Amino acid sequence: MSERDITSALALFARDLTAHGDLDTKLREITRAALDLVPGADAADIVEIAGRKSTFTSHGPTSDLPPRLDALQIEFGEGPCLDAATSVEVVRADDLTLEMRWPKYAPAAVEAGVRSSLSFQLFTHRDTFGALNLFAHEPSAFSDEAIAVGEALATHAAIALTSSRVEDQLHSALASRDIIGQAKGMIMERFGVDAEHAFSLLTRLSQDSNTAISRLSAELVSKGSESKSSGSTG
After folding, report:
1. What's 126's DSSP letter?
2. 3-162 falls under which CATH superfamily?
């Protein structure tokens, strides 16, 4: 495929990707496109590393190979995906039989049938990291052209994951606001105070109990619902 054909294919792919609203579907489309558009790629996945315990999630694996390689990197605490996700923007391994950077992972990857790999950093946040990973059965499979195409696909993956995270945060914020509003209403009704005083009381209870105001509100609403339920059956 010529450079012009690849550019056209990436543009078409970007337009088609916007039609998929589901995150998992978008990420599967990206990894499938990687096999079609990145010369030399035999398998791909997108890894998200989240939380203090470094929970790995493999998105859109094109076979069972990428998750197995991810598991090896988790086990050994080393590998191209980890390096790309946490520190280096692009990590290329031309021949894992000669690789010295990952003394435990490299031989295990070769045993699994992988000779070269290419990983792209998606983003680095305080508690969340991500990488697009490409694997090949042949050594020196990835050229500079492959890196250019991979970087474009990695950008799409980063946008999809970041947009999903922002949407989740928005839904969470709206849900928190709703539950806080319910708790304020209960306090206003119970103590005969206005909304401002109800929120001040809720804030003070949150501080005194060292409990997040959204969690405290949920507990108050839950207890209020239980109280009403028991009162209606009594």
Report:
1. S
2. GAF domain (3.30.450.40)
